[in-house]
Amino acid sequence: SLNCVEWSLLPPATEEMVVQAKQLKGRFEGDPSFEYEYTEISAEDAERLFEDGKEPVIKEEARLVATIEQIDREVGIVPRRAFVKTPRGSVHENRNFEGLSLTEAKKLSSYFHFTEPVNLKNKSLLEKADLDPSTDFLDSLEHDIPQGSWTVQLEKGGAVVVLRSLLWLGLTFYHVPKTKQYGYVYFGTGEKNLDLPFML
Question: At a CB cut-off of 8 Å and minimum separation 6, what does 32 contact?
């Protein structure tokens, strides 16, 4: 939105947009039509872009779409058992999910990345033996690298569990134990905290 009255949907992110956006550094300008020039692009890549009829620039709108996609992929999370995987491989919202207990809600192992699993494929058969294939089909936060990239806090005397990402500063996830209420929101600068390994 340019006037906070009329809103329009962003276009879906492509892999090319995500790769291009990762090369950019600095904060957003606030103008969707603003064009960033690539600062670190090889002569071959620049020549290839010119041959394809494209200039080595990316618009802020495309950068915003790609940044949202990156945030969703890297720190978009859900509680354990909120979704189930059927024997045919489709994933659905679990109608029987009644929330995590307070004890479970305090553990990082009770939260999963809501994206295609990466670490799960590398687990041994012995490690997979303890997992329920219908609910434990995603990557758990407890194995995130670097260790310590999440904070867990209790709010309102334990009535709400809040997780914050230190990798994408500004991402806050909440869950009300023993209820179906959970979600996450991002209020940040759109910059990944690349200094995190040195801060821990």
Answer: 2, 59, 60, 61, 64
pTM: 0.81
Return the H-helix or E-strand segment holding 44: helix 43-51
Q: Which of 183, 176, 185, 163 is nearest to 98 (CA)?
A: 176
> How far from 182 is each of 111, 135, 152, 167, 173, CA to CA, in Å?
11, 17, 14, 20, 7
Q: Count the neighbouring beta carbons within 10 Å of the beta carbon of residue 38.
A: 16
pLDDT, mean of residues 110-126? 82
Query: What span, in angstroms and rounded, lies between the C-alpha atoms of 110 and 77?
Result: 10
Nearest one of 82, 108, 75 to 181, comparing CA atoms: 82
pLDDT tens by residue, 44-98:
655 665 565 566 678 888 999 999 999 999 999 999 999 999 888 889 999 999 9
Q: What pLDDT, on the 0 to 100 scale, is given for residue 46?
A: 55
Number of residues in the chain: 200
Do 144 and 118 contact (CB within 8 A), yes or no? no
Handedness of CA 104, 105, 106, 112 (dihedral sign): positive
Selected residue with higher pLDDT from 136 and 170 = 170
For residue 48, give the H/E element and its range: helix 43-51
How close are the terminal C-alpha atoms of the chain, in Å? 38
